[in-house]
Amino acid sequence: MMGAENHYGLEPPPPREEMETLALVDDDHPSTDPHPLAAVPATLHGGDPLLFPPPSPHSPSSSSPSPSPSSSFLDPPAYADVVFSPFDSQNGTSSGSNSPRCAAAAASEYARITVSDPQKEQETSGSLVPGGGTYVTYLITTKIRTPASGGGGPTEFRVRRRFRDVVTLADRLAESYRGFFIPPRPDKSVVESQVMQKHEFVEQRRSAIEKYLRRLAAHPVIGKSDELRVFLRTPGKLPLSASTDVASRMLDGAVRLPKQLFGEGGGGYAGPQDVVQPAKGGRDLLRIFKELKQSVANDWGGAKPAVVEEDKEFLERKEKVQDLEQQLSTASQQAEALVKAQQDIGETLGELGLAFIKLAKFETEEATYDSQRIRAADIKCLATAAVKASRFYRESNAQTVKHLDTLHEYLGLMLSVHSAFSDRSSALLTVQTLLSDLSSLHARAEKLEAASSKIFGGDKSRIRKLEDLKETIRITEDAKSCAIRGYERIKENNKTELERLDRERRDDFVAMLRGFVVNQVGYAEKIANVWAKEAEETSRYAKESN
Amino acid sequence: MISPQGSPPGSSSQSPRSPSAPLFLSVTVTDPVKLGNGVQAYISYRVITKTNLPEYQGPEKIVIRRYSDFVWLHDRLAEKYKGIFIPPLPEKSAVEKFRFSAEFIEMRRQALDIFINRIASHPQLKQSEDLRTFLQEDEETMERARSQETGIFKKKPTDLMQIFKDVQSMVSDVVLGKEKPVEESNPEYEKLKHYIFELEDHLAEAQKQAYRLVKRHRELGQSLADFGKAIKLLGACEGDSLGKVFSDLGSKSELLSIKLQKEAHNLLMNFEEPLKDYVRAVQSIKATMTDRANAFRQQCELAETTKLKEINLDKLMLMRSEKAVEAEIEYKELKAESEEATRRFETIVKLMSEEMMRFQEQKTADLGLAFHEFARGQAKLANEIADAWRSLVPKLDACSPSMCS
């Protein structure tokens, strides 16, 4: 398995060039066995069963090193002779082999991750439906890159995971690596699982999980994460805290709310360690409300909040990324249309060839005139050329699909970028909320102080309130510092990731275009050769009619 | 333009009257022009005849003709030259919208040109008086001749008689219970009929795929244009040097789109049309087969009727009846007709076998040329594609990692 899965769901054909079957050009057997041609209209899926290694003795020039007929030896080398092997992807990168992405992948500690062997298992406990509740597990095999000195320790790990575990991994990573462009995890896609055949769905999911894990491993920061390591190496139950669904979280939050409102413990203010996580999706309902209020104040209120997104460079980049996303979307669409058009033309050529084969066979069987026999031979020649060209089109397309898949990959990456940007804005919102909390707390403290200073000897209850308030202010100050630190960290992550995106994107795009172009040239030359020969063989007709 | 004796056209440098000059007749159909308004609008063509045949006027003659004039010629020849495969005409009507499209007009013009030249190079057909009328007469005469040919008044009186006789014999067949039409029992001819019918199916399939291929070229052209545009826009998001490469790639893609549309047109005119023409030719053969079947039936019926008359005559002569004289005259008439019908049938048979050989040879040449044009066009296109993409490789190489900023 080359492992180069892609968006279009096509399997790469085996990396061979020659495809003439002897039966097609063998003139000793005029009644062609229809069997090899029955596969001619086959789709790309499943590879081309008609690829045989040895070239036909009748067409030596298809494997000769000479360049395309129209060029001399001084011209650039013919790409027809480049052996097109499908890109051997390592850990999910499907772009050119020279990019630093490959180098990054090579630096990852994970040499290869494979997902295989889906198994159905029974839900053992907590199942509401008696006898129901099956799920699928996948075998995940990880080969570790070991130093040449060959220290001890296993080089391969095998674990069994279910999709829920993948979701857990994704959630934990999202929490720990805010601000990073975390590769998006496979969809939960409930609807599709009902529409598709079960095995089709499982296969799609298997492939998606594999791609996802490989991408994670290739990320310079996340590839080294504990979460990923634990996921890949620890057999048995996944030792990451499971994500709970939003409903139960809200439920928990609702339980805590009265305590927060009526002042127990810290009086309902977020502790420092909690602020590092976003409010949304957490259990802290009060915090959610506060931040919501803050964001409304930001949007509609006249006063500017104390800290705003001022980083002009960031804003510029953000705009650029949005523009990029739009263009990627269009380009990805058009690439799909292009691939389809190329596939169609190849298919129709194949069908044309088939129709002519049948005609040739018919004429040969019914021939009563010599001119008929000659014509039958001519028709068969043309049909052969058409079928050859058709195969080249289809092969070329399989490669094109892989090259242009980079567009779709980057489009998918945009999701991660959005996520990272929203990490930043929610962190900012937390800071803003805390700042306005602080300012209102300070205002209250001032008022209390002013009021209690008017009473000589002090007011016991007021003094106690003031002390509590000062305690709260202290806690909130801590939280504020934490939040600011978290925010700055996220900003820094955004920055490095954007730089990485620019760098890698440039390289990946160059590789994509180069791969696309070289592939097109190579196959166009092959196709030109096929037709040039056919034109040569029929050239006597051209002279005759003049 | 096909010169019947194989000599190049334009050898009119030699005096037309000199006996040693090879005879030639070459025709061109050209210059389609839309005339008339609204529903009655039509296309007229300029037909240029160059010849040194004595029956024709001058070295060159130009007339204006329209499609229905060609139809007239075709139908006249079909009537007079039974047994010969009359060269087929392009299809009559088209969807209204399409009727005046440049492509359709060009396809029709080409087909009409081929049609008239096939007639001009056919050993028997080229001597036809109707051909001379078509090529020489002024437009008014042509229009008159054309409008006379409508309805059943197309037929001359003797043909009208024949129609009545046919009806009569059909009725008598029914009455006598001989409903099954009489057919030849010639195994070779049976084989030929079977061949022709099946050939039409195969050819229709090939032509269908050829037409689809034309469409696919157009679609690919369109998607290349769209892709090129999108790539250009995407490149605008990138830095200067890489953005330039994107832009170049997009431009090449758009360029190739144009080339694909061109090739689509070339395929249509020089590959798909010849295949369609082949199908039409086969249909023309089927028409001749119908003529042959009719002639055979007539011959059989007249032979039978004659026989009956002979028997009757003998009876009358034995009886020494006065009706014998009249009966003898009738019998002699009928016998002559029967012999005529037999001659007609045998002519058709003989002509058909010559025509079949000619047809096979002609089709091998036509198809060979079509294949050649197809291969040439595809090779040219593939080379253009290779050249366009190849020109980008050095630019992309210059953009390799760590070199572009």
TrEMBL record, chain A:
It is a peripheral membrane protein. Its main location: cytoplasm. Gene3D superfamilies: Arfaptin homology (AH) domain/BAR domain, Phox-like domain. Residues 59-75 have a biased composition (Low complexity). SUPFAM superfamilies: BAR/IMD domain-like, PX domain. CDD domains: BAR_SNX (cd07596), PX_SNX_like (cd06865). It is found in: Cytoplasm; Endosome membrane; Golgi apparatus, trans-Golgi network membrane; Prevacuolar compartment membrane. Keywords: Coiled coil, Cytoplasm, Golgi apparatus, Membrane, Phosphoprotein, Protein transport, Transport. Pfam families: PX, Vps5. The keyword Membrane applies. GO terms for molecular function: phosphatidylinositol binding. One of its GO terms (biological process) is protein transport. Residues 314-341 form a coiled coil. InterPro entries: AH/BAR_dom_sf, PX_dom, PX_dom_sf, SNX2A/B, Vps5_C. One of its GO terms (cellular component) is retromer complex. Residues 1-75 are annotated as: Disordered. Residues 116-239 form the PX domain. Belongs to the sorting nexin family. This is Sorting nexin 2B isoform X2. It comes from Phoenix dactylifera (Date palm).
UniProtKB/TrEMBL annotation, chain B:
It comes from the Eukaryota. Residues 23-142 form the PX domain. GO terms for molecular function: phosphatidylinositol binding. One of its GO terms (cellular component) is endosome. Gene3D superfamilies: Arfaptin homology (AH) domain/BAR domain, Phox-like domain. This is Sorting nexin 1 isoform X1. It comes from Phoenix dactylifera.
